[in-house]
Amino acid sequence: VIKVKTDHSIAKVQPNMWGVFFEDINFGADGGIYAELIKNRSFEFAKPLMGWTIQRKKQQEGEILVVNRKEVNTANPRYLQVKKQTDDFELVNEGFKGIGVKKGLRYDFSLMYRQSTPGVKLVLLLKDANNKIIGQGSLTPDQTGSDWKKQSASFTATETDPKAKFSILFQGNGNIDLDMISLFPGDTWKNRPQGLRADMVQLLADMKPGFVRFPGGCIVEGTDLANRYQWKKTIGPIENRQLIINRWNTEFANRSAPDYYQSFGLGFFEYFQLAEDIGSDALPILNCGMACQFNSAEVASLDELDPYVQDALDLIEFANGDVTTKWGKMRADLGHPKPFNLKMMGVGNENWGPQYLERLAIFTKAIKAKYPDFKLINSSGTDPEGDRFNLLNTTLRSNNADFIDEHYYRSADWFLKNAGRYDNYPRNGSKVFVGEYAVHADNSIVGSNRNNWQSALASASLMTGLERNADVVQMASYAPLFANIDAWQWAPDMIWVDNLKSYGTPDYYVQKQFSMNKGTDVVAITLDEKNIIGQDGLYASAVTDQAKKELIIKISNNSDQSQNIDFDLEGKIKLKNKATNEEIANNNLKQVNSFENPEAVSPKKSTINLKGKKLNIALKPYSFNVIKIPFN
Ligand code: AHR
To answer: Which of 150, 261, 275, 583 shows a CA-CA span of 20 to 30 A to 528?
Structure first.
């Protein structure tokens, strides 16, 4: 018999406990949630015409020239000079692994241009693989002068095609300079111009995540310091956001030429806005003056650290300052006069060693001096059992770190064995943020496998241990979040997308179940007076939600047998006699979800009757169950 002490809270659950980790990996941002359809829109990739091809009726020299003006415009050096003579020619963009086009949907084209006299007309064409036109519009640049102008035009697609291309057919005569050639679908999230892919945001919104951690991950660090993430370069007009090569280009992928860049169209303002839209706390992670220690290990010397620390201080002002402050005014000018109410940030991602501790101390001193209540997340690296991790953890604890960020990518077996990991942690002092975790087959860091039911069930089992220890483990996020089916560097991932569709893996449903049923108070659930951490393959935790008036039991059955379980629901609260069970079950641990069958592994709801304070339920083999019992 499993006992639940329904009326005795043993810990509070933080409202932001279960969050999401966002990084531009696997085409998560560019080519993913940032809905721009044009690859290399401002010709800044290593090869300026990467993603573009020119199709002429007749070969002519000098029609197109890429001009580099880096001396006068470091953020956006290149543009295209088109010298149009007689023959029509086309400039074709392949998109990010093709362009997803939906029949009947509006497409919004825009560009920047400069011309001394009008004369060129742009015919805008969406084409399928056979060059059939599946959408057509036009734009005649009508302004002249030496300044850059912006102009836009919209048109509607006539067919659906996940792998279309976009072409600009130049007609007429004259010379024109072009930059920031852009195409967005008309159905972005909240219909924001040049915004985010609505289906991908919706999957996040449906989880009601407690926080959005951004922008990573390793891209915070960069392979070297020049390619680290610098938030100030990601806000304001998109044409001024300087692209950098994405560090996930070459790592783990066999690419001959880099074609994965960070355009920062999804920049820090948009991240804050996204978090606000879906009711989550924003949780930025900043570079601590160290590049990725697995790559160049470049470190800013202590006398070079000021700008890094200043970025952190300014970010707090950007998020929370009123409009009389420099950065608060900047936020207001960008369209958000109200503060974003930022409460915490991370200093460093997977950094370690004396160099990290030295830099962290400088950040901490400066930030706490100005914002004493602001919480800081400290990194503790990637090896949850190694000496380096333990040493760093001990030092961070003795330094009274607010939060220690633990990452683990480990086997299903490791997850099951570690479901009791926090049961004996010190209850006072530093809190734990499990900032990245996922089940990887055979402990491999980057698997080739998609998340299957085995990985999700093992995660669910470990997560009961996080929930049971919610006084210590106050936040957690699965990682990575998104992957494009045609362009990924890292697997498993929580959500898979193609150019038009997206689906949640079994891990998505497990994460959503925890986040949507987080409760407010942890209550004890035991078998023979012991925490349930693997007896007969069972793992369990329980919470009450004092606002919704529900007792919520989470229990996984990792055995291949059905198990008939009796619960004794002890305590004074008056339980109603009808409960529900949202069960995710599959006899095949290798079962995955897919575009064809996106909900193969997903919760199914049933009703169960209580007898007084007793509940009996048959847990299916390989199942994760969220049992909800309302009370008065
Ligand atoms: O989630 C993928 C990567 O794993 C992150 O960028 C990094 O922090 C970790 O090593």
So the answer is: 583
